[in-house]
Amino acid sequence: MIKFNIDSPDKSISGRIQEKIDNLNKPKGSLGRLETLAKQICLIEQTLCPTLREPHHLLFGADHGIEREHVSVSPREITWQQMINFTRGGGGVNMFCRQHGFKLRIIDVGVDYDLSGNPEIIDRKIADGTKNFLYEPAMSMEEFERAINTGAEQTDECAKEGCNIICMGEMGIANTSPSSIWMSLFGNIPLDECIGAGAGLDTEGIRHKKEILATAMDNYRKWCAARKTNGNQMLADIDAIRYFGGFEMVGAIGAMLRAAERKMIILVDGFIMTACAIAAARLYPEVREYMIFGHCGDETGHRRMLDIIGGEPLLNLGLRLGEGTGALCAYPIIESAVKMINEMNNFDNANITKYF
């Protein structure tokens, strides 16, 4: 069984943080979301003078057995082709990492292709993709634990370089399918309302996807009925995660949990990573307090998924690329919140009458 030691941030300095924010030379509350962001970051770092250090982006890649059921318009080989493209700096994730000063780590946890000869890709392959969850669990408990531990290990490597803010992205054709199922299971939402076009399915493609995923859910419930969890909720949640999830998704969950354990800021991307955030919070609810949600994407259901976890996105740009790009785009807003609390003058120093 996985085990992390995640505590909620100590709230005892909340009053002092709020007092500092309210005494900046501006009308009280006038910088809106920047003020709440600054307070959250101060609480995570347990300081009135927060910093953002050595930002890192983890991009996990893996393939999915459910792709064999034609639930995605993109073929399986796109996963490995894009992984190689990332090593050449040609992806959206590369551009935004360069723009915002993030160090990119590309990790193969289950791509159905031999990438071991590429020195730019960290080889942590668990298998050549997951099994087809239409018929059986996508991964075993042992594989689940390996994926979790791989994500945790990657966060540890970032922390060694002084990182205190981290985001995750994914590359895995068909991974909107497990994300939709997690949304349904963990949000208690009818499955049909959780399924969208993914990378561009047409009406018939969406109908087929709904049919396949509904059958997979029926088979999962039969599997659960035959399996004894003895009322252990964490074990039941792990079963749901590993039955449907991809190695890249479970790797991201492990990275999030370790980041919270290390009291790092977690910047969450779109539909897939929000599904991973929900799964992580099912296992350890305290992880939610370390998360900042970068954007609300264009995938059907993402807004509702954010509502499940109580995430208020910083951006709404209609993005649905994945890779962590939306989280990276939101980073300058987080920088602004930190600069606000550190660099704005207060009423006393500015010799301005405090009028409230």
Describe the 3D structure:
The protein has 13 helices and six strands. By secondary structure, it is of the alpha/beta class. The chain has a six-stranded parallel β-sheet with strand order 3-2-1-4-5-6, sandwiched between helices. Strand 5, helix 10 and strand 6 form a beta-alpha-beta unit. Helix 4 (92-100) packs parallel to helix 12 (325-343) and helix 6 (176-187) crosses helix 10. It is globular. The relative contact order is 0.18. The mean pLDDT is 94.
Radius of gyration, in Å, reads 21 Å
Compressed to H and E, one letter per element, the order equals HHEHHEEHEHHHHEHEHHH
Mean of all residue-level pLDDT scores:
94
Helix/strand-derived category reads alpha/beta
Instruction: Name the beta content range.
Output: 5-15%
Estimate percent helicity: 40-55%
Shape: globular
Strand order of the largest sheet: 3-2-1-4-5-6
Number of helices: 13
Q: Please outline the major beta sheet.
A: 6 strands, parallel
For the termini, the CA-CA separation is: 53 Å
How many β-strands, per DSSP?
Answer: 6
Low-pLDDT stretches are none
Summarize the topology:
Blueprint: H1 14-22, H2 32-45, E1 56-62, H3 77-87, H4 92-100, E2 103-110, E3 121-123, H5 141-160, E4 165-171, H6 176-187, H7 203-225, H8 233-244, H9 247-261, E5 265-268, H10 271-283, E6 291-293, H11 302-309, H12 325-343, H13 347-350
Parallel strand pairs: 1-2, 1-4, 2-3, 4-5, 5-6
